[in-house]
Write a structure and sequence with these properties.
Elements: E1 7-12, H1 15-26, E2 30-35, H2 43-47, E3 52-55, H3 58-66, H4 85-94, E4 102-104, H5 109-112, E5 117-121, E6 125-126, E7 129-130, E8 135-137, H6 140-152, E9 160-164, E10 170-179, E11 187-196, E12 204-210, H7 216-226, E13 230-239, E14 246-252, H8 260-265, H9 269-275, E15 296-300, H10 301-309, H11 313-328, E16 332-336, H12 339-356
Amino acid sequence: MVRMTKRHAIVCGDYINAWTLQQGLRSLNYRSTILPRSKYNAIDQALLAASTLFFTDEAGWARAAQIEVPAHFLPRTYNPIFVDKLLLACHLCAIGETPVPFASFSSDLQNRISPPLVLKPRRSWVGSRKLPRGMVCLSTEQMSQAIRVLQSHGINPDLLLVQQFLTDAENLSVAGFYDFLQPHRSFFIATRKVLGDGGNLSTGVLVETVPAPKGLGKRVQHVLNTLDYRGPFEMEFLRDSRTGQYYILELNPRFWMQHGLFLAGYENCLIRAYLDDQFTIPTATDEELMLPYRPMLWIDRIFLFFALMSNRQTLYRSYQEEVRKARQRGCVVYGFPTWGRAVRFIIGRTVRFLFRSR
């Protein structure tokens, strides 16, 4: 009997995003290695021999694209618009799109945007260093305090972006795979953040698929075409509760946290399209490249442990209640990572905490 040799991929990053990639790759007979962020500065030496690279953050992708690592990865060409939120917002305006109202940190700022606003770094990463997500400012006094906090992290005012804070806005995303050279290979789904991990700028711990609002897929296609985009992506929107307007918040040019929805509900088509330039999903999409709607709820299993261990009872109860309501709506619930991986992570984190506290 001939023994099949597993192909090899390197996953740049860690946590749920990377573990989901490993899960999807195993199903395709791939062996994968995690490259932690602490080793990104050596990415040229570490990755030259890899057949395929996967990215869970912009830091690893930017380095590989800038030094043109010869392995397979997407997007292939470095574009600063992908990693700079201010450049993206300016580009959106130039092509007739509607970003969240924004301004650079300049002298005319108060003439353009007044509190409530969000003050955030233009980039999520400087090299391999993760920057703060940003801060919501309800007054000019809070804005001054936020500037001081961000400066303490080494973020100068010229590296800041200001966005209007849309109270009670709903967070929706269009995500999937896009190939401007072969549009027939492209496919999207729409999702809604059901529950975040706390705070105004939270990461989603419960995310459900939703029927796509009409026109959103066409808008996404238009934006990605102007960027000559090829690869996995998530484009986030905020829906203004007062006007119903959908504003583009940001673009994630990589595998985002909830990409496991494609693994669970759409035959692992996202990773398959990434690996194979000839892969075309057999499921028909509509005229906006949307896949058929399948009611699914993505859940962050590790957050469930954190909520219990940190005694965040309100969030824990909200988590359980939203899962229950999603099941009642007919959603199929998919948890990530696997229970085994989640338990190992929590045990490791607990052991490290106890060791440091001794």
